[in-house]
Fold:
Amino acid sequence: MEFFIFVLLICLLIFLFSLYLLAKDDFVLLRHDVSMEQIFDKALTLALFSLLTARILYVALNPRPSFLNPLVFFGIPYFPGLSLTGALVGALFAFVLFYAKDSKAPKGRLLDFFSISFLATLPVGLLGYLFLSWADNEVKHAHIIGLIVVYIILFIVVLKFCLPALLSGKLKDGTIGIIFLISFSIISLIENAIDRGGKNLLNAGIEDFILFLIFFVSLVFLFRQEKLISRIKKLNLKTIVRLSKI
Structure:
């Protein structure tokens, strides 16, 4: 129990520290008069809401009569079980709830910083889950190790390429957040397909439906955000012109 709480607290601290490093001197947030106190207040509420939805989706995917007891449902340290997809859905819902009516808040910038901070916690959280489940023979530890490696690589790519592009203006605000949602959906869908095995490869459940929805909605927003269709058309036109000259 103590180790489970310790992992959750470490993840929360990493999330808040990452958010602080990203937002403390950001000129976009300063220009819109968004203080660190405001960001942290919403971040803590978002984290609690995310924890609740992570538990709700886990219970929905793993129904047991004991979960009808509120002490069992809310006794997460004693009866562990959280859904990573549920955590993301809760975070997205809370983010929209907080900033939907706030016309002054730079929503895209905040989505980017929240997404990067959430991404920073994933390897640590999965590593903690790996230690907690090490004695459980039913848990596929190789999959968890693979996920840790994938999310570390994704985090490095975001920090090395995407974040500098955002800060220099090459990427629009919100693009990193959208890329993270697409990446998370793809990674989770592949993981679920592997877990089901070859015979049940197409036997998608409620979690896969949620991930598909996040993927397609995020993909539409990415095309609109970066105007990818017009860029592709221009690229094809340039290619045709070059070929005609040859």
User: Anything to note?
Assistant: The chain has ten helices and no strands. The longest helix spans residues 141-167. Residues 2-245 form one domain.
